[in-house]
Write a structure and sequence with these properties.
Length: about 375
């Protein structure tokens, strides 16, 4: 944006026919990034995040955003936020999209794996429980089939001799559903089916977000792209009809997304959005919690045991949130002081968005902060 403004000012000062100076190369220097304040994190996660950053020698931004997006992926539709004090028609689902921007070899996957591991342990426990439930269900189903067959034989015998037909066994039992928190590289159809079984939503974890984005850029994937666009909202229904698979309906499509992306890939997508290319449909703007911190020029060896107490405290938070009922989600509102602060911030945001001074791609990005902030 700064280069565009500078170029505009230059042409205003140098009308056609004037002597032009020698062109200067466009700089590629990045603006310095303000340091991340750990106090912005939930108190239960500060020590865990700081411990990971120090032991891996990475900016604290990386584990911080990984922790927040994993939290968003666990909560999803288990809670709802009402940003306005009285107007209950506007409700925000606290899912989140984002990740880490860094060159190769900067520990993106290692940092992210530290926090997704908390979710993997919950899923492991759920899978063990599910396998036990499936075993019990299969035994019950075999017994039910035998009782059904016995009823049929009794029914036939009663009809032959004119006796009253026996009452048919009234038995029904839902097949156990495997609860999920994480999806890694699912097909569109598989993910839609998973969300149908898990109405709270799941967290899509991709080590390389560029691979996921490239898949959605391919011709013929427009339906999948629309699926993800709506999954960001967290509250819109989505139905897929397929011959052979039948109809699969998700009452409220909800997805959180976390991963890593390299700066070069990022520039490609930003360039497409700025020039209003075919990919400028708001998908990339939905990746709101992206961090691209300054990496320190120095490195020091840190060899100590992880802070187990801090990690366990964070794990307990994930455990409690994962057990929140999706059929009765928490309804959250701001406290009085926070409500007034939000109104001030929101008013400033709307003035900036409506000023006409911003590039349309930036307007599309900032407009989504209305829900990001809550």
């Amino acid at each position: 944006m700064g280069e565009t403004t500078a170029a505009y000012s230059f042409f205003r000062k140098h009308p056609e026919g004037a002597d032009w100076p020698e062109p200067e190369p466009l700089g590629r220097d990045l603006c310095p990034v303000p340091p991340f304040d750990p106090d912005l994190l939930p108190e239960a996660f500060r020590k865990h995040v700081s411990d990971v950053a120090e032991r891996m020698q990475v900016p604290i931004d990386l584990p911080a955003v990984s922790a927040i997006l994993c939290l968003a992926g666990v909560v999803n539709r288990r809670a709802a936020i009402q940003p306005k004090r009285a107007d209950n028609a506007w409700v925000v689902t606290p899912n989140g999209w984002g990740g880490i921007i860094a060159p190769p070899g900067q520990m993106k996957s290692n940092v992210l794996g530290t926090f997704t591991e908390h979710l993997a342990r919950i899923e492991t426990r759920w899978r063990v429980e599910w396998e036990s439930e499936v075993e019990g269900y299969e035994i019950w189903e075999q017994e039910r089939a035998l009782r059904e067959q016995a009823w049929k034989e009794q029914f036939k015998a009663a009809v032959k001799v004119g006796r009253p037909a026996p009452v048919r066994p009234d038995e029904s039992r839902a097949k156990p559903v495997l609860r999920r928190l994480v999806a890694n590289d699912p097909t569109f159809e598989a993910l839609h089916s998973t969300l149908s079984d898990n109405p709270a939503g799941v967290l899509l974890v991709r080590d390389e977000l560029s691979g996921w984005l490239a898949t959605l850029d391919k011709p013929g994937r427009e339906g999948e792209r629309q699926f993800y666009l709506e999954a960001w909202n967290g509250d819109k229904p989505f139905t897929v009809d397929r011959i052979g698979r039948g109809t699969i309906h998700v009452p409220a499509l909800c997805l959180s997304v976390v991963g890593g992306i390299q700066p070069g890939r990022l520039r490609q997508y930003l360039a497409d959005a700025i020039k209003d290319g075919p990919g400028n449909d708001g998908l990339f703007q939905r990746l709101q919690l992206l961090v691209w911190p300054d990496f320190p020029k120095t490195w020091r060896l840190v060899d100590r045991s992880p802070d187990r107490a801090a990690a366990e405290r964070a794990a307990q938070v994930f455990e409690r949130l994962a057990e929140l009922p999706v059929d009765e989600p928490l309804r959250l509102k701001f406290g009085d002081a926070a409500q007034e602060l939000f109104y001030v911030w929101w008013s400033e945001l709307e003035a900036k968005i409506r000023s006409g001074d911003l590039h349309p791609a930036l307007v599309a990005h900032l407009s989504k902060y209305r829900s990001l902030m809550p």
